[in-house]
User: Fold this.
Amino acid sequence: MKKAVVMGAGGFIGSHMVKRLKNEGFWVRGVDLKHTEFSETEADDFVIGDLRDPIVVSNVINQDMDLVYQFAADMGGAGYIFTGDNDANVMHNSGLINLNVVHESVKKQVKKVFYSSSACMYPAYNQEDPDNPMCSEDSAYPAAPDSEYGWEKLFSERLYMAFARNYGLNVRIGRFHNIFGPDGTWDGGKEKAPAAMCRKAILAGNDSSLEVWGDGLQTRSFLYIDECIEAVQRLMDSDFTDPINIGSEEMVQINELAQIAIDLSGKNISIENLQGDDFEKKYGFPVPEGVRGRNSDNKLFREKIGWEPNYPLVEGMKHTFEWIKSQAEK
Ligand code: NAD
Assistant:
């Protein structure tokens, strides 16, 4: 029986990957600081441990592990990444995890490692026009990510690639673009835009308003979790070893995303774009908007992997909305 370790198995993408690997017949060990929040883990072994500690990493990666999936990171949505308050922790915590994982994976001769990078590593200067952002893989340099989170991802991509070159580590690196779906954080400050919009629409009364941070004209694309997991597995099965985008090419304005959530609620809700001084007065920090535009560019994935995601955003939002509604009712 093949064995896999999923790091960050208590989190959103990691918990979905555990399910997928179990369906594929793997023996799975999950590792995280915390247990899964929304459903029981299906992992055969679940270790509560801090992956910043090299001894923990050494204990969870055994000699006979076939695959390591590295999803653990100190991260959150715009309210976590872009205020600046968490910069030192984000860089230090995620950096340590990745330093430990590359070292131990080489030492224990793991057959293949997946590393989850992020579209946040792309240079801000290519994402100023909301209608024409550029996120092709070869546009990564000269580097200029707009957050320390993005810089850490870029550093760690290079770390995994250096270990591949110098020590023969067999790595696959996915640059995720806004993954969403059921079993993801939906309140508390670490949630992402799709979950936040669904929650706000669910909790809003009829004839009320839904707050959107900024002017709402910034663009993004969102990939449904099932397609993210499918893409990771297809990448893992391929021979392609450079970093590659894993995202949707269905780009929308944030106000359009909010409108999808409002339509799903069936309520009469208007959009209130909170910006400038009004925002700062309410929250005590400037609008944490990030870049003006971002979209996945799937050309390389189509060419090298021969597949691309095609699940419509509105369908993914439907499942997410229903799931958050059931959570909110609890
Ligand atoms: P998540 O926050 O739900 O999961 C990350 C998990 O890592 C959490 O459960 C957390 O407890 C765990 N973790 C953090 N520090 C740890 C430590 N020191 N030791 C052990 N566990 C630790 O995030 P997610 O959405 O599932 O994202 C998974 C990965 O994908 C992350 O690396 C993230 O940066 C990357 N990514 C996600 C998105 C997205 O839209 N969800 C986009 C781009 C990149």
